[in-house]
Design brief:
By secondary structure, this protein is of the alpha+beta class. It has 3 domains: 15-69; 75-105; 136-181, no CATH class. The chain is 30% helix and 25% strand. The protein has 3 helices and 7 strands, in the order βββββαααββ. Strands 4-3-2-1-5 form a 5-stranded antiparallel sheet. The N and C termini lie far apart (71 Å).
Length: 183
């Protein structure tokens, strides 16, 4: 397996950060051994690492992922990839909007990177008003009304029936109003 590392040297004891290819995860490993090999083709280094609290070691070249010397490098790389992916998705959506709906004013790449701008404000009277919280007496009244409706809906045999969306009637069993809502 090919590991995407730069030709930098890692030190024994150094913590490396591996972005695993098969999982969306960054995994820290520690270099526990460096082997330098001198051949006619040149000098090469290989590294053995351990992951987690385990003493089990594996060759760094056997890990299927990208290796970074610092967490900050891994973060910058992942962030730039995420931004590029998001920008591509938005650009595709803009292109489809223009194709499907003849949207006016094509967005440029600069527009995609800029934060959204609110073009109009809701008039103060158009803003939804917050409903006042029900008081204890409101809750008691609601509980009584629910109990009355429940009694009205119940059939002669005490079974409650509801009408389904397709027009069929269905029995409702084991429906009980919580004690806190009973009058």
């Amino acid at each position: 397996m090919l590991v995407a590392t730069t030709e930098t040297d890692h030190s024994v004891g150094q913590v490396l950060y591996v972005v695993l290819r098969k999982e969306a995860r960054v995994y820290p490993v520690q270099v526990i051994k460096r082997t330098v090999e001198h051949t006619l083709a040149g000098i090469s280094s290989s590294y053995t690492v351990r992951g987690g609290k385990s003493e089990q070691s594996i060759p760094l070249d056997d890990i299927d992922g990208e290796v970074f010397d610092s967490a900050e490098e891994a973060k910058k790389t992942l962030t730039s990839r995420a931004i590029a992916s998001i920008s591509q998705r938005v650009a595709q959506a803009v292109a489809k909007a223009q194709e499907w709906y003849q949207a006016s004013g094509p967005m440029t790449g600069d527009d995609l990177d800029a934060p959204p701008v609110v073009h109009r404000e809701l008039a103060p009277q158009a803003r939804p008003q917050q409903q006042p919280r029900p008081t204890c007496s409101d809750t008691e009244t609601l509980a009584r009304e629910l109990q009355q409706e429940s009694d009205q809906i119940a059939g002669k045999d005490g079974q409650m029936m509801i009408k389904l969306a397709d027009g069929r009637m269905a029995k409702v069993r084991n429906v009980e109003i919580p004690p806190s809502m009973r009058s």
